[in-house]
Amino acid sequence: MKKEQSSLDTFVSGSVSSAVLKNVLPAIAAMIMVLIYNLADTFFIGQTNNDYMVAAVNLATPVFLLFMSLGTLFGMGGTSLISRALGAGKMEYAKKVSSFCMWAGIFIGAVCSILLLVFAEPLSILLGASSETLGYTKTYLSIVSLSGIFSIISNCYTNIVRAEGKSTTAMMGTLIGNLLNVILDPIMILGFNWGVAGAAIATVIGNFVGALYYLIYFWRGHSILSIKLSDFSMKDKICSGVLSIGIPAALGNILMSISQIITNSRMSGYGDMAVAAYGVSAKVLMIVSLVGIGIGQGIQPLLGYCFGARNKERFQKSLHFSIFFAFILCTALTVLCYIFTPQIVIAFLTNEKALSLGTQFSRIMLTTAWLFGIFYVLMNALQAIGAASASLIISLCRQGLIYIPSVFILEALIGLNGLAWAQPVADVLSLVLEVIIYKVVTSNYRKLKAASGSLERDLNYEKQ
Predict the structure, then answer these.
(1) Does residue 191 sit in helix, strand or coil?
(2) Most CB atoms closer than 10 Å: which of 40, 102, 412, 414?
(3) Where does the chain cross the membrane (predicted)?
(4) What is the domain partition of the chain in residue ranges?
């Protein structure tokens, strides 16, 4: 019990600001490493001076993000359920949830890898690959399909380990895997002259090592949770509890992938350089968005624990400090990215038309990036308290019901730039919707308290 309590001390005691920063900063560091990995792939491919390769990687990226989305499904869903269970002192239940996430993730990852490997070529065509980019896109997808299980495990447990208060440990798997990927990129892309195949191989190796880190962590008995098959269970609403929060969390990423596929398809009508430019502008936007995601993911276990322990005051103070911190950091990053957009874009593209469009698209999409921190903190707060329906509505709207129609409407109204303006429009409207929904859900903390009690009864916890 002493071991269990020591890892959870930051959730229970100490100042709110230090508790938030202790959980958020490692999560931000992990997301920055994800950012560096994403930028490195595009950067070193760009050094081949073949912008068709850049376009191909951008076309294939949304499909790879689907693997990450599945990791998010089990990671965020599991984290929400585990943190609330730990807050209520239900250790055995938390272990069963952790084991369920591991083995369900392995099964789903294997199925998706096989499907992607078999259908790589028709999928590449569906993504909008032209005759010049088809071969590159198919190659990248075929190789990356091998990383399915590893990507899911890595993305799942970088979240779940945070649920037991070990934010630095949770960061390390992502950090190690992505750092290795970045090191291997120039060797395999440029040194071995493997191009997109080298980028894909580096991705597979990085994800394998990241997953292995978390497996070793559990095998050595350092966790209060479990990945043992003997602890696997779908009873007591474990499956539904994980999926009810995990699906809305993953749906945002899945819809983001689908929306990118749709936008890339529309962009392809303006030429391969437009596709390459849009892909790079998405990378620029990612500089701000991944930091916002890191803050949201970092704060979720703390908020979930406070909710499970029915500590209203600490919950509210943690939330308010997180919103303030996220707003300041994302605003500063947005300003910096806007000022240095040309210098960022030129690192990835060589074609004059692609450079011009990349700068133009990036500055359009950055107009609302300063709102990302607020959006992701509120989203993860809803997930932390188990507000599954609210999370689902927001996820459906931001990258689906709001964004996708915006793509077609704005393109019809203002042409090519309309495809770039669709994201800022979706950002503003979805944030307004999120604030309204959050106020409705949390208007009376007594209802949250009642929901916590109801959750405890529904899950049929057993006292340890």
Answers:
(1) helix
(2) 102
(3) 20-40, 52-76, 97-120, 140-158, 170-190, 196-217, 238-262, 282-307, 319-349, 369-394, 401-422
(4) 2-458
